[in-house]
Amino acid sequence: MSEPNASLASEELVDPLPALERAVKERPDDAKALVALANHYWLIGAGPEAVGDLASRAIASDPENRGAWHLWALAESNPRERVARWQQVSSRFPQDQLAKANLADNAASLAGAEHDYQAVDLAIDTYEELLATAEHPDQRVALEKAIKTLKGWKF
Prior knowledge:
Blueprint (H helix, E strand, L loop, with lengths): L5 H5 L6 H10 L4 H14 L3 H14 L4 H9 L4 H14 L4 H18 L2 H17 L3 H15 L4
Helix pairs in contact: 2-3, 3-4, 4-5, 5-6, 6-7, 7-8, 8-9
């Protein structure tokens, strides 16, 4: 009797990259195609420039495409500018909890790296916003711990 996943392991996986690149070439203003290719590039480590370019094109094509905005923010390599981008995404999509989490995490990272109290405050405020709507106990515990830790930071 074979393992349930044995057939999956023996199947050849098809690289989606050629199809994604072809879709963008055929439909250069299709935000979904641009985001799919940008996401694939991100996952294979193609570099922030390629991802950022595709994400920017997707935003220009469809300003309401949250995936494009997320990839645009992720692609910024400068920590301070990346925080600013996550602030823009969070402002544009106020219900986007993932954008807020990324904003808080990036602000905390910036604060630690640059001993920046304004970034600490931004991280705390954003984590507190997330805590106000957190429904899962483990999520609440993690957010409370992060807030407590950041409030204790002294540089």
